[in-house]
Amino acid sequence: MPDLESLFTNNVQWAEQTKEKDPEFFNKLAAQQTPEFLWIGCADSRVPANEIVGLLPGELFVHRNVANLVIQTDLNCLSVMQFAVEYLKVKHIIVTGHYGCGGVKAAMEHKQLGMLDYWVRNIRDVYFHQQEALDAIEDDAQRIDRLCELNVIQQVANVSHTNIVQNAWKQGQELTIHGWIYSIKDGLLRKLVKPIKSIDQVDERYRMA
């Protein structure tokens, strides 16, 4: 396990190597950020957003939390979304979960988890609505992985239900929502839902006037 000083040493080495490859890299980075993608992912340390999709700093705007949730009362997540959509004008919002997610697994256990109980309650709601199908899966790991997928699908819907996204569509802004899942076992991403590009793809009960 590296100590704190080794992190500074690594940082110096990384900065020097980066400048060797592109002497103007940090000057260009300091000038502005113009990402086209907002990544909403899990805080799991094994899921590094930029590395997974091969993008450099400045090319991917990132928000991460436990189990990649988009909750209507989470001002942190909503503020990131608003900044990305209204000011950075990102063209894609990508909700990305991962198989074997600890937050999803915790939501399936009948245990008290402290503050985490309030957070994973949203995943428990997904489990409640899909319980018959999930309980029919005999293998525990497969059941958790399926809930990981269903959780992503629900969070994609939650993104589309926000006034942030719907106002952007009304104003003619190009914006597409995606739902992906990542496998730590093979390092590959998989698409879970058809991209949502307009209000017409949102259930009428969630459309705002």
Shape: globular
Regions with little confidence, pLDDT below 50 for 5+ residues = none
Instruction: Give me the strand/helix succession.
Output: HHEHEHEHHHHHEE
Give a short account of the largest sheet.
5 strands, mixed
Side by side, the strands of the main sheet go: 2-1-3-4-5
Q: Fraction of residues in helices?
A: 40-55%
Strand segment count: 5
- Please give the count of helices: 9
Rg is 19 Å
End-to-end separation in angstroms reads 53 Å
Provide the structure class.
alpha/beta
Strand content: 5-15%
Mean pLDDT: 94
Could you explain the architecture of this structure?
By secondary structure, the chain is an alpha/beta fold. It is built from nine helices and five strands; from the N terminus they run H-H-E-H-E-H-E-H-H-H-H-H-E-E. A five-stranded mixed β-sheet has the order 2-1-3-4-5. Helix 3 links the parallel strand 1 and strand 2. Helix 5 packs across helix 6. The relative contact order is 0.13. The mean pLDDT is 94.
